[in-house]
Amino acid sequence: MTPILALGPSFLDPDTLIRTLGFIGILAIVFVESGLLVGFFLPGDSLLFTGGLLIATGVLQVPLWLALVLVPLAAVLGDQCGYLIGRRLGPAVFRRQDARFFKPRYVEDAYAFFDRYGGRAVLLARFVPVVRTFVPVVAGVGRMDYRHFVGWNVAGGVLWGAGVTTLGYLLGGIAFVRDNIEVILILIVLVSVLPVAVELLRARRRTRREAAAAGGTRAGAAHRG
């Protein structure tokens, strides 16, 4: 099998991580990256895809069904932990008015963010590197309804954890994929960013339309005055 080179530092190479840490390492990394702030740099998408590929080729001796159960479970539990961190520690961390990074207005922004996007934020963030680490914490800080969060968290964890692993497993038997794994992993990262990019563009257009409408209203009022 063609060696999988890292898309960053060598110690973050998904192939090296899996061969060194095994299946337990995959579960641990998924848990940490999903909800603990220190795990934002870990390679979640490429790790799951590579894990599925190695299962398909027999390098990783784990039944696919077991991976499809435990990986989503680790992802869901990681997000639950992140939510509890935000809910329990958020108010204390964001209390200081003169804080340089953790300002009280960030809590207000979190409330507004989840009021606007609701569960979609939790689901979409699951497929975006770095963002998926912080969203559950922000959800806790913003006091998102817990049952609402759990529902979207489970949906996102299953779709992401089982979906990306299955994709790697199905494509692992294709020679072209094995021979061009680095390009495939880069494409996975790019595709995972698309939903948020589209949402940001829509938000920018809405803001411009609202600003234009507000400007027109003010101009009309001034003219009538």
Report on the architecture of this protein.
It is globular, with a radius of gyration of 21 Å. With 225 residues, the chain is an all-alpha fold. It has one domain (10-224). The protein is built from 9 helices and no strands. Helix 3 (64-93) runs antiparallel to helix 7 (146-171), helix 5 (119-125) runs antiparallel to helix 6 and helix 5 (119-125) packs parallel to helix 7 (146-171). Mean pLDDT is 77; it is low at 1-7.
How many domain regions? 1
How does the overall form come out from the CA principal axes? globular
Beta-strand level of the residues, as a percent range? under 5%
Write down the overall mean pLDDT.
77
Instruction: Give a count of the beta strands, DSSP E runs of length 2 or more.
Output: 0
Number of helices: 9
SSE pattern, N- to C-terminal: HHHHHHHHH
Structural class: mainly alpha
- Terminal CA distance reads 77 Å
The low-confidence runs, each spanning 5 or more residues with pLDDT under 50, are 1-7
**Could you tell me the radius of gyration in angstroms?**
21 Å
* Main sheet record: none
Q: Percent of residues in helical segments?
A: over 70%
Which structural traits does this protein have?
single chain, 225 residues, mainly alpha, 9 helices, disordered N terminus
Question: In a nutshell, what does this entry contain?
Answer:
The protein is mainly alpha-helical and about 220 residues long. About 75% of the residues lie in helices and about 0% in strands.
